[in-house]
């Protein structure tokens, strides 16, 4: 029996529905919060209760810590699930929940603070013995920039210390570009995160983006749920994720899983988290840790059979992990495509508007996570993600074929989507044979 009676879901869209579904399956009531733009949203109707936050801008609703915590207290919630995005990696929300006596379904504030700062996260990784990309961990200023870049060797990357979502990143290939790129990275970091600190690291050639899903309980246990390959990206944001990564050997997979768990334990981590690595030429390097549930978590759920949201809730209730590392089993292959309301012909420009007709395919080998339906209006205020398709198979080729079939039968009229891009990717020889990295999108743009 669950210990929590009622959970507030501090998010919107498909992730809010995802959390609501598992909580209700566990016999736990749910409270949705919503903005003016989301009055008629599906998550509002599916939850047991709903609280109107007001406004349509994120700053007026889903990013307002005071309103979120007040809603949880007013409705008698035992716990709060932040989903992903918005306040999911905000130490102020975690601390406010703690002060209000509401269990935060995530790591403690200290862990969020350390891992949320890219400079501090690198220091923590180094202390835990996790391999790092060569670079300068400290915040780089203009005076030290040229010398640091020469020491590391070109090309280099400038990255926002408080960054995320691909923002505040600049690749510099020669010294004459360095100062201008530094100023641009600082300006974007300041605009996006209110923090202009930038650090420097070596630019790894032809890397793969491989991340490890971890879960840690309050009893000192930590388990790696395997890896996800996330190398197919546009503007440093993921388009396709899959598991397992065919480039990894069992030995390398075990080493990366251990490194991820070692890092999580070193910062007193609790709950679901993802440790992201660059993998190149048989070596892996720590990039960052996302202190929340990832968009692509269904890929892991498909091959392990573990409901990660259920685990989050159980852990927050004080229960130990439901599975030990040696008992975890991986079955088959899974692929996720993020379907966004974007115009790929216009450099993936967000395309809000009304979805006049919507039909999602159904199959025992397909999972569809979405909050849209015919007549749904994609608002301009939030992320453009409208659907996630997750296909599984006995092997990678079978999973790809099933995903192509699903994409061909997904109907979305009224707004452009990234479906044509996904089809081009999955049909391309480069994707089928796994010959790509984070610097290219296989099959796109079309020849």
Silhouette: globular
Supply the number of helical segments: 14
Can you count the beta strands? 23
Please state the structural category.
alpha+beta
Kindly state the percentage of residues in helix: 25-40%
Average pLDDT rating: 95
Q: Order of strands across the biggest sheet? A: 14-13-10-11-12-15-22-20
Poorly predicted runs: none
Main sheet summary:
8 strands, antiparallel
Distance between the termini: 56 Å
Radius of gyration: 21 Å
Q: What would you call the quaternary organization?
A: single chain
Report the β-strand fraction as a percent range: 25-35%
Topology (SSEs and partners):
Elements (H helix, E strand, L loop, with lengths): L5 E4 L3 H13 L3 E6 L7 H5 L2 E4 L12 H10 L4 E3 L9 H10 L2 E2 L4 H8 L1 H10 L7 E2 L5 H11 L3 E5 L8 E4 L5 H16 L4 E5 L5 E9 L5 E13 L2 E7 L6 H17 L4 E10 L2 E8 L6 H8 L3 H9 L16 E8 L1 E2 L5 E2 L2 E2 L2 E3 L6 E5 L6 E2 L6 E9 L2 H13 L2 E3 L5 H9 L1 H4 L15
Parallel strand pairs: 1-2, 1-4, 2-3, 4-5
Antiparallel strand pairs: 6-9, 7-8, 7-9, 10-11, 10-13, 11-12, 12-15, 13-14, 15-22, 16-17, 18-21, 19-23, 20-22
Helix pairs in contact: 3-4, 4-5, 12-13
């Amino acid at each position: 029996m669950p210990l929590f009676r009622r959970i507030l879901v501090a998010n919107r869209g498909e992730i809010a529905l995802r959390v609501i579904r598992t909580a209700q399956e566990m016999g736990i009531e749910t409270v949705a919060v919503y903005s003016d733009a989301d009055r008629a949203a599906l998550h509002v109707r599916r939850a047991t209760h709903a609280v109107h936050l007001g406004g349509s801008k994120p700053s007026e609703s889903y990013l307002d810590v005071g309103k979120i915590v007040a809603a949880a207290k007013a409705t008698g919630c035992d716990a709060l699930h932040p989903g992903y995005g918005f306040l999911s990696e905000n130490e102020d929300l975690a601390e406010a929940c703690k002060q209000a006596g509401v269990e935060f379904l995530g790591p403690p504030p200290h862990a969020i603070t350390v891992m949320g700062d890219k400079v501090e996260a690198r220091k923590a990784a180094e202390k835990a013995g996790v391999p790092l990309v060569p670079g300068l961990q400290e915040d780089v200023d203009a005076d030290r920039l040229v010398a640091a870049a020469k020491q590391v060797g070109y090309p280099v990357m400038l990255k926002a210390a408080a960054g995320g979502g691909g923002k505040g990143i600049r690749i510099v290939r020669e010294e004459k570009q360095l100062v201008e790129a530094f100023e641009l990275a600082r300006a974007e970091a300041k605009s996006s995160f209110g923090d202009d600190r930038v650090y420097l690291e070596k630019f790894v050639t032809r890397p793969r983006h491989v991340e490890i899903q971890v879960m840690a309980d309050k009893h000192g246990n930590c388990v790696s749920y395997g890896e996800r390959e996330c190398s197919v990206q546009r503007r440093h944001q993921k388009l396709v994720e899959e598991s397992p990564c065919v480039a990894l050997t069992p030995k390398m997979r075990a080493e990366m899983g251990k490194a991820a768990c070692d890092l999580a334990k070193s910062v007193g981590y609790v709950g679901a988290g993802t440790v992201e690595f660059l993998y190149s030429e048989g070596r892996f390097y720590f990039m960052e840790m996302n202190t929340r549930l990832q968009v692509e978590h269904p890929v892991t759920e498909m091959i392990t059979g573990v409901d990660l949201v259920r685990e989050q809730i159980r852990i927050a209730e004080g229960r130990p992990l439901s599975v030990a590392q040696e008992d975890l089993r991986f079955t088959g292959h899974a692929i996720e495509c993020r379907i966004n309301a974007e115009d790929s012909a216009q450099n993936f420009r967000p395309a809000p508007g009304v979805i006049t007709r919507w039909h999602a395919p159904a199959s025992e080998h397909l999972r569809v996570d979405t909050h849209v339906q015919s007549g749904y209006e994609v608002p301009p205020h939030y992320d453009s993600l409208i659907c996630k398709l997750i296909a599984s198979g006995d092997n990678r080729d079978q999973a790809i074929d099933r995903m192509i079939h699903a994409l061909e039968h997904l109907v979305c009229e009224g707004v452009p989507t990234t479906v044509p891009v996904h089809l081009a990717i999955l049909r391309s020889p480069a994707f089928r044979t796994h010959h790509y990295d984070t610097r290219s999108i296989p099959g796109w743009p079309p020849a």
